[in-house]
Design goal:
alpha+beta, Cytochrome Bc1 Complex, Chain A, domain 1, six-stranded mixed sheet, 37 helices, 28 strands, about 20% strand
Length: about 1000
């Protein structure tokens, strides 16, 4: 279809059209004449089509109305009055992405699908949700998704409940999360960025129904919307649908939603706050120190936007980063990191030191400013600049977002200017800015940025975040006292009203939608589904006596090479050292190159070289598994020779005796694991649980779980005394792993890439050991520990499960449909909707492991009881043909997640190592497609056997878990 600027298409006037070579796309900017809606279209050959609608939603307080509204509009609408259209869509669509997101100043509703029919179904539900939600007639929606008073009987204690309320209690339990919120508040006290759009748990219960509805009335109008279409879809058909079905119902209005610029400060501001740590923890060394600078704006300085992304990596992320090195050398804290928040009108550059003390604040400030002044005076190493620009350019050109739709990334990037009434493409057309930035290789480009935006910038803040013992308990007690006082002030009639509201909400939550209501949600047919699994190219070859798995896939001249070393030669007591080895390799010096120069060489010549650990469970024997140390490397085809030179140098000549550097890396590793435990507690609890009964999980627990954290904490605390032992063990593990007989290599790319790879392979083979070594014997003591893992978190992560193969059952693809039903029907309703947790999931694997786990959960025993109730639910399961079709489609959607070229190579390699053939994958798919209600019902015995094992692990608030101590076999203080 040919477009003409100034012409109107289905009510949309074309404002601008141009090619963006960086995205290989044609972009078109439209305005809907009647409603005032803006629409950006990116046309290309990507079949993973993306739609999103977003609104500018600046909050005026921290009651969380933008966030609560994001949840609430997806709880039923005019055309689709079911209580949970969002969940119904996840169950029964082929979406490749479906979610909603709240930012500091915008709320977006993105979706993606490769299927055109599905794409229009999803658009229909989302557009109806945002413009015609049921929030105006059903106050229970705010109660459920936001907050409400919970009281079932007069004598009960009054509580707060609500999904967002508990989500944000979890978010505010992370010190890093608290810090980033305080930074924004410190720099923008007079604008909407000075409050918390997600909601502060202390403020959320102040939100009224009127404020909630008024916010929607004001901001959720097409005149305040930003609509996005991406991919190879039929744009004429898409525009007609959006206009005819929705936008033509509205007239253009003026919406006052503009974000104001914060006036610069005349001097740096200092702000302090506390965050909770465990009562058994030590407050010493628990402070975060940060210096923060407002760095230009997003609307008129796109070059600066990109330059600061590079500068943040240059100063604080690269192994050669000079500011990070100075702060580490000054021993102010145990971890240093930076952030550049460019998703707001005025981006913020932050320098953070973790595990410090408030007494170090002046030294911190002095080291930062003195180092930056020296950098400006002496100049930045040009090789470091080249390295940081090159790695950024590689990432921009690759645009591999790890399964995240490219279109969504482009939409969010476009909003960095579009939201503020500027050209939405200015941050997408990066070539010209990158060319200008490359002038830094011959000029003082970055030095001048540092001087202007950091050294001479008074619009800045020092934020100090101190760990305080018992703070969580103090806040909890204050909330209880406030609620008790409020309850005491109520009349009998008012108490009865709260009881009735609680009962009314629970009745709504427990009452299933009527069949006619559910059937309003559009549904595909099984005939819309591809019957065959996607073929993943793989050819087994041999080079230099080494097995090579070749994946002939178009990669746009990028070679993806994964080198997998068998780790099962390593003694059981040394397993944690495999992870430590993977952390140190490439980040300490080699015999001929110091680690800073090594980092530069990697970033100049490659797209990255990363060392990691992985475990591949054998398909038909849950007790067997293959632990690996994996080198993941990527480079342009012409750089493969240099890539192999660098890898050979690292694995052959790394110096493990670099004491100071090794200590820094161990401290950083410990810090990052602390972040993971608090941010991804559901994964930590689930992993700990499966280690009770799965040998593979017991191994993983020693390489990445709580056991590994305890190991790294122990060697960090006694580093000087243990250093010789650490060197000895790293050398020992290195020799056991880097052996030609341990090796499989995966190569993803076209034929010429493989040819170059094969020619360069001897560089690595020739430096490897070539001895036949016996496998180590691993005898993990598997036992049902049923632990309570204590942290300062204000919420829980409750995991329960067991292994069905140990109970005599075999894997079937029909189990994946059971997983869909358990997660999106039963657990969603019992744990999230009724229980108030942010999420509840069922995980089920070929290995036999079944785990039920909750996320940011206010409960403990109530959730365990909910898990126990799944047997009755499945035992009485019934579903119509339409319902089963929905569950099957949702399951297939999960199986068919889009894969990038590198992901296809990695997936094919994993299947090969695990012994999963394409025929077995096809059989699994056919089992999914043929699942009947009676098949699901038949899993009742399996689930009963799993539940009756009574095997669980809970990570969460120390007071809450201690109050429930009788259910645990042991209680463990995670951070002690």
């Amino acid at each position: 279809m040919k477009f003409t600027i100034g012409s109107t298409y289905h009510g949309f006037k074309l404002i601008e059209e141009k090619n963006i070579k960086e995205l290989n796309s044609v972009t078109r900017l439209f305005e809907h004449v009647k409603s005032g809606a803006r629409l950006l279209h990116l046309q290309n050959d990507d079949d993973n089509k993306v739609f999103s609608i977003g609104f500018r939603t600046p909050p005026k307080d921290s009651k969380g109305v933008p966030h609560i509204l994001e949840h609430s509009v997806l709880c039923g609408s005019r055309k689709f009055p079911t209580k949970e259209p969002f969940v119904e869509l996840i169950k029964g669509s082929l979406n490749t992405f479906l979610n909603a997101m709240t930012f500091s100043d915008k709320t977006i509703y993105p979706l993606a699908s490769k299927n055109e029919k599905d794409f229009f179904n999803l658009m229909n539900v989302y557009l109806d949700a945002v413009f015609y939600p049921n929030i105006y007639t059903q106050p229970e929606i705010l109660m459920q998704e936001g907050w409400h008073y919970e009281l079932e009987n007069k004598d009960d204690k009054l509580n707060y409940k609500g999904v967002v309320y508990n989500e944000m209690k979890g978010a505010f339990s992370s010190p890093e999360g608290c810090l980033m919120r305080k930074i924004q508040e410190s720099l923008f006290p007079d604008t909407s960025y000075g409050v918390e759009s997600g909601g502060d748990p202390e403020c959320i219960p102040e939100l009224s129904q009127k404020e909630f509805l008024d916010f929607h009335k004001k901001y959720y109008h097409p005149s305040n919307s930003y609509i996005f279409l991406y991919g190879d879809g039929n744009i004429d058909k898409q525009l007609q649908f959006i206009s005819d079905e929705y936008l033509n119902n509205f007239d253009k209005i003026s919406v006052e939603s503009a974000i104001e610029l914060q006036k610069p400060f005349s001097k740096m501001k200092e702000v302090k706050m506390d965050y909770p740590i465990s009562c058994d923890d030590d407050e010493l060394g628990k402070t975060f120190l940060s210096l923060n600078f407002v760095s230009g704006d997003n609307i008129s300085q796109p070059e600066l936007h990109l330059a600061f992304e590079i500068l943040e990596y240059l100063l604080l992320e690269s192994a050669a980063a000079p500011l990070k090195k100075a702060l580490v050398d000054a021993e102010i804290g145990k971890d240093v990191f930076g952030s550049f928040d460019n998703s707001i009108l005025q981006p913020v550059f932050s320098i953070v030191v973790k595990n410090s003390n408030e007494s170090e604040k002046e030294k911190f400030k002095d080291v930062v400013l003195t180092t930056l002044k020296n950098i400006v005076k002496e100049g930045i190493d040009k090789k470091l600049i080249e390295a940081c620009i090159n790695i950024t350019e590689f990432k921009l050109r690759e645009a591999d977002l790890g399964g995240f739709p490219k279109g969504l990334y482009y939409y969010i990037t476009s909003m960095d200017s579009w939201l503020y009434d500027k050209d939405p493409t200015i941050h997408l057309e990066y070539e010209s800015y990158l060319s200008k930035i490359k002038a830094a290789l011959t000029t003082n480009y970055f030095e001048e940025l540092i001087e202007k935006y950091l050294l001479n910038n008074t619009h800045s803040s020092m934020v100090i975040l101190n760990g305080k013992k018992g703070l969580a308990e103090l806040k909890s007690k204050a909330a209880d006292e406030k609620l008790a006082k409020f309850k005491a002030s109520l009349s009998e009639k008012q108490i009865d009203e709260i009881i009735q509201e609680t009962k009314s909400l629970k009745k709504r939550q427990m009452t299933p939608d009527e069949k006619e209501v559910l059937e309003t949600i559009p549904l595909l047919e099984l005939s819309d589904i591809e019957n065959n699994v996607e073929h993943l190219p793989i050819e087994e070859k041999e080079e230099q006596g080494v097995k090579v798995l070749s994946h002939d896939i178009f990669t746009n001249k990028i070679a993806y090479i994964n080198i997998l070393f068998d780790a099962k030669k390593v003694d059981m007591k040394l397993i944690p050292y495999i992870t430590l080895l993977s952390t140190i390799l490439g980040r300490v010096s080699t015999e001929k190159t110091n680690y800073s120069d090594l980092s530069n060489e990697v970033n100049i010549n490659t797209g990255g070289i990363h060392f990691t650990t992985d475990v591949y469970g054998e398909n038909e024997n849950f007790e067997k598994y293959s632990p690996k140390l994996v080198i993941k490397a990527k480079a342009l085809s012409e750089k493969i020779p240099k890539l192999f030179d660098i890898i050979a140098e690292i694995i052959g000549t790394t110096k493990f005796d670099e004491k100071k550097r090794v200590k820094e890396l161990i401290q950083q590793l410990k810090s990052r694991h602390e972040m993971k435990i608090l941010d991804r507690g559901h994964m930590v609890a689930a992993g700990r649980l499966t280690s009770y009964f799965s040998p593979a999980s017991a191994y993983i627990e020693k390489t990445t779980g709580i056991s590994f954290y305890k190991f790294i904490n122990e060697i960090e605390m006694d580093f000087d005394n243990k250093f010789e032992e650490i060197i000895e063990n790293l050398n020992k593990v290195s020799k056991l792993i880097f052996n030609k007989n341990n090796l499989i290599i995966s190569v993803t790319g076209e034929e010429d890439i493989y040819t170059t790879f094969a020619a360069e392979l001897p560089k690595i083979i020739n430096i490897l050991e070539n001895k036949k070594l016996p496998d180590a014997s691993y005898d993990f003591e598997l036992s049902k520990d049923n632990e309570g893992l204590l942290t300062s978190s204000d919420v829980q992560y409750v995991a329960k499960g067991y292994n069905f193969i140990k109970k005599g059952y075999t894997y079937s693809g029909k189990m994946l449909v059971l997983k869909t039903i358990a997660s999106l029907d039963y657990l969603w309703n019992r744990v999230r909707v009724q229980g108030g947790a942010y999420g509840g999931f069922a995980n089920l694997a070929r290995s036999g492991n079944i785990v039920f786990v909750s996320y940011r959960d206010p409960n403990v025993q109530e959730t365990l009881k909910a898990y126990d109730g799944i047997c009755d639910y499945i035992g009485s399961f019934e579903a119509s043909e339409r319902e089963m079709t929905k569950y099957i489609i949702g399951t297939i959607s999960d199986l068919d997640s889009p894969l990038t070229p590198s992901m296809k190579g990695e997936r094919a390699t994993a299947y090969y190592i695990r012994g999963i053939t394409e025929a077995q994958r096809q059989k699994e798919r056919e089992e999914v497609l043929s699942t009947k209600p009676e098949d699901i019902k038949a899993f009742n015995d399996l689930l009963s056997d799993i539940i009756n094992e009574d095997c669980f692990c809970i990570l969460g608030n120390e007071t809450k878990l201690k109050d429930n101590k009788d259910i645990f076999t042991s209680i463990v203080n995670v951070f002690k």
